[in-house]
Specification:
This protein is mostly helical. The chain has a single domain, classed as A middle domain of Talin 1 (Up-down Bundle), CATH 1.20.1420.30. Helices cover 79% and strands 3% of the residues. It is built from ten helices and four strands. The chain has a two-stranded antiparallel ribbon with strand order 1-4. Helix 6 (170-201) runs antiparallel to helix 7 (206-231). It starts with a helix and ends with a helix.
Length: 318
């Protein structure tokens, strides 16, 4: 047992190291590119960084759709989006309070909230007969993402960086972005695979593995990227990463998944979907409590407590 678990532990550590350096490369490259192109950090965070950190969810869902595992496709998105808000912003906010720009409060977070409600209704066929995301539902979701990206382009030149950022040439900035995303994907996969091996060697249940280690693994890029961004003083990338990633998950990942294969939605997921809507609304509410337009440490702690309670209830539910 001891010798069998050594290699997975070592690979797990290596995976975390690759993940951290991938996040650093992604944040540095995105920040430098933003300043070189006179584009705001929030716009970069809502696009390049968000897409890069959502790549694991996209890959998982594409394979799940090809194999006809709709429950994995929906569970992956619900679990990841809840983790992004409660754990990613929770941990990042405990490390350092996250300042949020007015535009994000008034437009981007409300768009994420309305998008979550819309996908919830679409999945339940708006209470009509049947619960399925069809090919045309997927097309509609992709169109929603296009609308959001057009909005991002309109704000890209409106907000300028007011933080000290190390500048690289545009080719080097792009290379850092590519290497950063590659590091996140490789590191995330190593962490997930070896965490599962360790869990099995320790006789942990498959249910516990799926709800914790695997869900954590696909969202590790968002977690590491946002924490690194906050530590380096780039709050816009931290919040933009989470908001953008959740929007990408809802519109791009579920959209592509349902276009590959219609996804049958299990109504037993409605409590989880409803909880995601409540949590997203709570995130918006925190923008007006305590210090305005800021996620304070006490609010971040509440996020972490909510996630812990949710996981506990999931385990009780089986």
């Amino acid at each position: 047992m001891f010798t069998a678990i050594i290699l997975p532990i070592l690979l797990l550590v290596v995976g975390f190291v690759i993940l951290v350096y991938g996040a650093i490369g992604l944040v540095d490259g995105a920040s430098s590119l933003a300043k070189r192109l006179s584009v705001s950090e929030i716009a970069i965070g809502l696009t390049i960084v968000a897409f890069g950190t959502s790549a694991p969810e996209l890959v998982v869902n594409v394979f799940a759709s090809f194999d006809g595992h709709a429950e994995i496709a929906f569970g992956n998105i619900l679990g990841s989006n809840l983790f992004n808000i409660l754990m990613v912003l929770g941990i990042a906010g405990v490390v350092k309070p996250i300042a949020v720009k007015r535009n994000t409060v008034r437009k981007e977070i409300p768009f994420m909230l309305m998008g979550t409600i819309f996908v919830f209704g679409l999945s339940n066929n708006f209470s009509l007969s049947g619960s399925i995301l069809s090919f045309w539902d997927g097309v509609l979701l992709i169109m929603g993402l296009v609308v959001f990206q057009i909005y991002v382009l309109t704000i890209a030149k409106e907000q300028y960086l007011d933080v000290d950022i190390k500048l690289y040439s545009i080719p080097k900035s792009v290379m850092l972005l590519i290497l950063g995303i590659a590091g996140l994907l490789i590191g995330g996969e190593m962490v997930v695979n070896n965490a599962v091996k360790i869990a099995k060697l320790l006789n942990m249940s498959e249910n516990f593995i799926g709800l914790t280690l695997v869900a954590l693994g696909t969202s590790l890029p968002e977690l590491v990227t946002s924490v690194v961004a906050v530590v380096r003083g780039h709050s816009d990338i931290a919040i933009g990463n989470v908001v953008g990633s959740n929007i990408f998950n809802l519109f791009l990942v579920l959209g592509v998944s349902s276009m590959i294969h219609p996804l049958n939605y299990d109504p037993s997921l409605n409590p989880d979907f409803s909880f995601l809507i409540v949590v997203t609304f709570f995130l918006l509410l925190t923008m007006f409590t305590g210090k305005k337009h800021k996620i304070d440490r006490w609010e971040a702690i509440i996020f972490l407590i909510l996630y812990g309670g949710y996981i506990y209830l999931i385990l009780l539910r089986g």
